[in-house]
Amino acid sequence: MYKYICRRLLTGLIVILGVVTLTFLVTRIVPSDPAAKWVGPRASSDQIAAARIELRLDKSLPVQYCLYIKDLLHGNLGRSLSTHQPVADELRSFIPPTLELVLLAFIFAVFIGVPLGMYSAKYKDSALDNICRLFSIGVVSMPTFWVALFLQLIFYNKLGWLPLAGEVGLEMSVLSDIPHITGMLLIDSLLTGNLELFGNAFMHIILPCLTVSLYPIGLVSRMTRSALLEVLGEDYITAAHSYGINETKVLWEYALKNTLGPTAIVLTLSLGYTLTNTFLVEAIYSWPGLGSYVAKSVTVLDYPAIVGVTLFSSICYILLNLIADLIIALDPRVRLLG
Amino acid sequence: MKEYRNTLKNMIHMKGVGVMGSRKCFNIQSCVLLFSVIFLLFASTAIAAPKIAVYAYHSEPYIDLDPSVEYSNGIIPLQNVYETLTRYNARTKKIEPLLATKWVASSDGLKWTFTIRSGVKFHDGTNLTAKIVKDSIERTMRLKKSASYIWDAVKAIDTPNNTTVVFTLKNPSPMDLICSASYAAFIMSPESMKMDSSWFNSGKDGGSGPYSIAKVQKGEQIILKAFKDYWGGWKPDQFDGVIIKKYAESSARRQLVEKGEAQITEGLSATDLNALSKNPNVVVHADPAWKNAIAFWNTQKSPLDNVNLRRALCYAYPYDEVVKNVLDGRAKKASGLVPVGLWGHSDKLGAPKFDIAKAKKYLALSGVDPKKCKFEVTFTSGYEEYRSAMQIYKTNLKKLGIDLNIHEMTWDSEWERSKNKNPKDRQDLLIMNWWPDYPSPLSWFYTLMHSEKNISFNLSYINNPKIDKLIEEADTKTVVNRKEAENIFINLQEIAIDQAYFINMFDREACWVVNKNVKGFYNNPAYETVVFFYDLRTK
């Protein structure tokens, strides 16, 4: 197992280098003047010439690439062309809110989706099953931005139960010291014992979390139902029933374990996808996360930021793929090869 | 009682940056709290909660908080935290005193003497002097960032005494207008001048304005608090604090103003604006902005070097239809290069209207075969109105037998393309917005029409010594005889229309939505998207 993990990580490093190189080259080929972007929309030619030297654009492409890799090895991802701030610092501030949102959404997804799928399988073809299936297909099909706007309209505008947008209330942000330990506000407020802030932040995360979780809820529910139906038809389940074992025990202890593998893999991979594709949700809820950072960087062709985000995505996918494979390996029927 | 206690606690903490829970503060706090509770028991007047204005903005409220560097949205907070020597008043259309109380130019316009206001304190307690003014401007000139070019005419800055600043210029320039610029004209404290952007971006400031920076959240929001020692003084119905926060979605900003959670917003979609105009709790302000959309013909590329062809193409553009149907009436038809509301604008320039018959007439006069005319237009992605306008234009051009390809791209890609050495590699038509850095129409002429050694923004590639001479004359006359300068600018616009260098697509409007309880708001086109919160009053 240890050798397997090391081999996979080494392969991952090569993949990361390839992705970074490719992204670096693509951002240089796209017609754009990074120096003009650095200085601003109404730059004079002197300002642009000075910026070209400052950004090392006067050097040849291979030299630029080598300097970039050298900086990367020291943890320096360069400076954003639009904000002039270190990309590493920006990622450090934008990643945690997205991570917090997505992880919470996926926890929701598991705790709602799995039971939903299980009872849908248990009561196959009943009214409950039909409602669950309709719900699963519905939430997977609905566009995320529409769901977000709809939830805002109902819960903020009509009912007034939940806040519209933002990570924390305006009054709270003025009057309270917002801690910044992990960058995840729920965790930071608990670590500092600020329960008022925790409550406020929790109320603000409900709607965006619900929006992000709907797709994985539908996915998990469908996957669990399909896998469980297959397992429930196995001989050992019939044997368990004939031994008089309690139905609930059969479902939760004997059947569910064998369905979790494929579901966990799909969930892990969709987590990676969601981490960098929350830009619509973040734009609508004014959530200060990676999604809006990515969207802005791509729109303005801020290539140091684009390469930085690509690097982060690559690392995420490699690690999540590894986790997915290790989950499969927990099944004693599977042996890791290669 | 609990509410008042919390409110008072909050008011105390508004003075600093959220200091909570230290023992020393706790003892002082307890005494103040106790006294206040006793006072409340016997006083008949309630203590008011701090008044906070929320400005829901569509993008990040700043890029860089260094006043010598910022050339973007950051003027929204910076124009409240820092001050300039003068400020343009859009209501009176005059330059007004701010940190300077009066100024006088020599008869040749080469020497300007400003008298600096006494009794002005920076937020760190330093008193304003003439030397600080000199050092601030020289810092901006030295850094060569932002709109530092506005100081290019300055040869020397002298300070004969504590309250006098003398600018000696290389050529006559309107220093009263330049000192009121929205960018690059801020005066800052001596300590802050030694710092770099990272110091400013950490939430510190060196301003003298009515508000100081309380908190920043990069890319999301900035919180300002009232500077109690501001030289202008305070009235009870002014805002104690300001939050400028990013809400990217128009529907979110609309809902916030409807619910009263935000007091001011702008940049809403036409649907949201129309809905809010019926809301009795808000007031919709639609005022001219000094920003217009201009399409530049590549006059160095055949057959666009043919002036009659360009005239034909200008007559085929759907001016009224774009304003009415694409922009829903939230713009004005442009009459020339200078937008409505700025001196130099004229409604009597004889600008072309949509007229297919005239378009056909000029096309015939040009002798160009329309079948050989396949043009390409580029504009910056995200501008939906340009796409819609060009689609209507494309339909009109088809009536002349001319084809138009529409391409969106990022601004710097578009600009990069327009700077190609070979005119054939450039686009045929380029669309961009233009607005001035200070209240003068010169920017449109000097930057967009004056010949250039290296291509910058003269993207019709005009190279006409007669035009250059007129522009330089207008620049000089702006100082010594503004009325004559205005006549020259009008003449230049007539030449531009006659030669059909551009399509003056439309003059933009600034549409604001303001809560009805906020008084004193007006749009100042010299400071785009800026709200001067000190001028506002609330119930």
Keywords:
heterodimer, A: 338 residues, mainly alpha, MetI-like fold, 2 domains, 0% strand, B: 539 residues, alpha+beta, 11-stranded mixed β-sheet, 4-stranded antiparallel β-sheet, 22% strand, globular, disordered N terminus
Instruction: Kindly state the percentage of residues in helix of chain A.
Output: over 70%
Low-confidence stretches of chain B: 1-28, 30-47
- What does the largest sheet of chain A look like? none
The 3D shape of chain B can be described as globular
- Gap between N and C termini of chain A: 10 Å
Task: Name the helix and strand elements of chain A from N-terminus to C-terminus, one letter apiece.
Answer: HHHHHHHHHHHHHHHH
CATH class identity of the largest domain in chain A: Mainly Alpha
Shape of chain A: globular
**What class, by secondary structure content of chain A?**
mainly alpha
How confident overall, as mean pLDDT of chain A?
86
User: Architecture of the largest domain in chain A, according to CATH?
Assistant: Orthogonal Bundle
Radius of gyration of chain B, taken over Cα atoms and rounded to an integer in Å:
26 Å
Give a description of the structure.
The complex is a heterodimer of chains A (338) and B (539). Chain A is mostly helical and 338 residues long. Chain A folds into two domains: 35-76, no CATH class; 90-329, MetI-like fold. Helices cover 75% and strands 0% of the residues of chain A. Chain A is built from 16 helices and no strands. Chain A has helices spanning 2-29, 34-39, 45-54, 61-73, 87-122, 127-141, 144-158, 170-175, 185-191, 195-232, 235-242, 247-255, 257-275, 279-284, 290-299, 303-329. In chain A, helix 9 (185-191) packs across helix 10 (195-232). Chain A is globular and about 85 Å long. Chain A starts with a helix and ends in a 9-residue tail after the last helix. Chain B has 539 residues and is an alpha+beta fold. Chain B is built from 17 helices and 19 strands. In chain B, the strands form four sheets. In chain B, strands 1, 8, 9, 10, 11, 12, 13, 14, 15, 16 and 17 form an eleven-stranded mixed β-sheet that branches. In chain B, strands 4-5-7-6 form a four-stranded antiparallel β-sheet, with helices on one face. In chain B, helix 1 packs across helix 2 and helix 10 packs antiparallel against helix 12. Chain B is globular. The two termini of chain B are 22 Å apart. In chain B, 48% of the residues are buried. The model of chain B is unreliable at 1-28 and 30-47 (pLDDT under 50). Chains A and B meet through helix 2, helix 3, helix 5, helix 7 and helix 8 of A and strand 8, strand 10, helix 8 and helix 14 of B.
